[in-house]
Specification:
The complex is a heterotetramer, with two copies of chain A (148 residues) and two copies of chain C (73 residues). Chain A is of the alpha+beta class and 148 residues long. Chain A has one domain: Molybdopterin biosynthesis MoaE subunit (Aldehyde Oxidoreductase, domain 3). Chain A has three helices and seven strands; from the N terminus they run E-H-E-E-H-E-E-H-E-E. In chain A, a hairpin with a 2-residue loop joins strand 6 and strand 7. The N and C termini of chain A lie far apart (38 Å). In chain A, 43% of the residues are buried. Chain C is built from two helices and five strands, in the order E-E-H-H-E-E-E. A five-stranded mixed sheet of chain C has the order 2-1-5-3-4, with no helix packed on it. Classes of the chains: A alpha+beta (148), C alpha+beta (73). The interface between A and C is large, with 39 and 32 residues.
Chain lengths: 148, 148, 73, 73
Amino acid sequence: MLSLYDGALDVPKILKEWYDAEAQSNYGAYIPFVGTVRSEDGIDGLSFDIYEPILESWYEAWQKKAQERGAIIKMAHSRGDVMLHESSYIAAVFSPKRRVALEFIDEFVEDFKASAPIWKYDLIDGQRVYAKDRSTAIKGSGILGANQ
Amino acid sequence: MLSLYDGALDVPKILKEWYDAEAQSNYGAYIPFVGTVRSEDGIDGLSFDIYEPILESWYEAWQKKAQERGAIIKMAHSRGDVMLHESSYIAAVFSPKRRVALEFIDEFVEDFKASAPIWKYDLIDGQRVYAKDRSTAIKGSGILGANQ
Amino acid sequence: MVRVEFLGPIQKDALELEITNLNELAEILQKDKELSEWLQNSAVAVNDTMVSSLDVVLQDGDKISLLPPVCGG
Amino acid sequence: MVRVEFLGPIQKDALELEITNLNELAEILQKDKELSEWLQNSAVAVNDTMVSSLDVVLQDGDKISLLPPVCGG
């Protein structure tokens, strides 16, 4: 289950919905990762662009990986502006056993950071400034550049 | 914050309380681990004994470790009976950065399993049966035994 | 005709091009000086599937996307 | 007088003993056949602090706890 929201996430509501949805599924471990906008470098907030078709296929590939380990995943992300101390991202794993859950949430969140087609902008003085220095080129980038 | 409850945990309520409590603390990552009683081996549920003085000092040592990495922890656990598909354990970490949070929740949960003075019993046909096979001797055990 | 879309922070309108493979696309885009850094650090998808080399034959109606460095979360 | 408590699944009432060190405690408890497995797999705390050897001097009023294998969560 991949859910995209305009603006900040209602974290308690989403965590409860996911917990309740799997209450009878016999998973022993539930680990959500919640990402919240930090106050740093004088920003007023962050803003996000998402390219949904590729986000969905990326997510489906992870869903399949989870399934192979007997686990399931869920994810929520914000589109547009999210202000300081609001949350923009939740990824979660449910699994029968804790080791799988602990390892999977780490891999899932790290690959999300490296590969999910989402672009982040700092909100500074009403401007949207691409967070270039914190961004990661997707694996395989550069094939259209010169000197290939 | 270490909270002990009689019986099952109200997971959505606790996750919300912790999230709200740290909403302005400028942590970028919040990772709760939720442990839920699985239906297996014909049990009706689990039951827990806790030795609180040593649990508290164990918890305080982890609180200090978290602090050294700029993070904080929270934990909730059940006393007594917790039935199938109810939850008995939540551990959480808040940290400015995701890597610290992802590594810390793993270490914290694993050491909890290995060291926290809590004893688990299967509830079977109204009996409380010590979960001996799933239990771990605390590091340094056996000093009072013969053949030392 | 093939459609080329520039995603996220690449401030450029989509192009409609008569090309039959990605090598032709690379030649065309490399003439645009403002794109040179983006070409070095962007990934490429054809019809929303990521590709890892230029050895891709394009069909009429295909959609090509350039994905610059990402930062979700 | 020193108090010895058996925690969790060890089904045994607390003892009040006149001992001055953990070696004496080990000798006394090893005579109880029902305790032999628990002695092999239990950790020991003196006044709620875990100890890793028997080289501990006991004072009047000290509390010793035996902690059998744990399984929280």
